[in-house]
Amino acid sequence: MKEKIYTIPVTDAFNTDCECPLCILEKKLEDDAVEYTLGPSMMEPDSRIESNRKGFCRKHFNLLYKQKNRLSLALIIDTHMQEMNNALSASFSKKRDTLKQEAQTGRTKTLFHNFLNKSAESTDIVNQLLNHMNDLEKQCVICEKMAHTMERYIDVIFYLWEKEESFKETFNNCKGFCVHHFQALLEGAKKYLGQKHLPAFLLQLLTLQVDNLNRVQEEVNWFTKKFDYRNQDAPWGNSKDAVPRSIEKIVGYMRTEE
Ligand SMILES: [Zn+2]
Ligand SMILES: [Zn+2]
């Protein structure tokens, strides 16, 4: 049996009436991670070392900022910027002399390098800096933490789907998935299901996904038709919140409430 810390949230999410149970799981992880970052993690040296080194992506800085815990956030930013700035200063001071030299001898050296078909050192420095900045931009403590637990959840979904008939039924009765998590399930199917179970799983998943994507599209369509004066008195059906739900179906959960 898989650990309960993963199976319980998975079963709960699949029993929730929603457009994507994996979004329910992901949103909860995100909320918890944001809260943890500004709370207990402040006192954990290992967490601080990690956030000093990696920092956060734009989306998660945004969520951290919305928490209105400015002192905690400022403390995290302060030490992260110290580390980030020190790394840049250190690599600049290592290259300063080379750059000065190339700046002075610029034209002659360029001709010489062109002759040798070799790039100037300043070009190498640009490339090294770009690699460093790209790495820094890709890293986010919260994204990485969420991705790690989501992978455990996906593993558990396939485990339960294979082993527990009642979960298979719950899975079949959900309203499908957002496009992003549909993709995650396809990747998971490739990774966790053997050839014995793959066709049956795909049959279920694709039926769910096609039916529910069509349902949501029809709900948006009815939303647009409700603006026609001839439909003024016709019932809304499920279409009143069709716009945010359709966006969720395409890209995952929105945070319209915040
Ligand atoms: Zn989703
Ligand atoms: Zn992030």
Short description:
The chain is mainly alpha-helical. It is 76% helix and 0% strand. The longest helix has 47 residues, at 70-116.
Structure description:
The chain is mainly alpha-helical. The protein has 2 domains: 4-22 and 150-251, no CATH class; 70-138, no CATH class. The protein is 76% helix and 0% strand. The chain has 11 helices and no strands. It has helices at 4-14, 21-38, 45-54, 58-66, 70-116, 121-138, 141-163, 165-172, 179-192, 198-225, 242-251. Helix 1 packs across helix 2. The relative contact order is 0.12. The mean pLDDT is 92. One zinc ion (ZN) is lined by residues 20, 22-23, 177-178, 180-181, 252.
How much is the average pLDDT?
Answer: 92
Which structural class should the secondary elements be placed in? mainly alpha
Which kinds of small molecule does this entry bind, naming each only once?
Answer: zinc ion
What's the domain count? 2
Percent of residues in helical segments?
over 70%
Q: Report the strand count.
A: 0
Distance between the termini: 38 Å
Characterize the biggest β-sheet: none
Please give the count of helices. 11
Shape descriptor reads elongated
Rg over alpha carbons: 26 Å
Contiguous low-pLDDT stretches (5 residues minimum) are: none
List the helices and strands in order: HHHHHHHHHHH
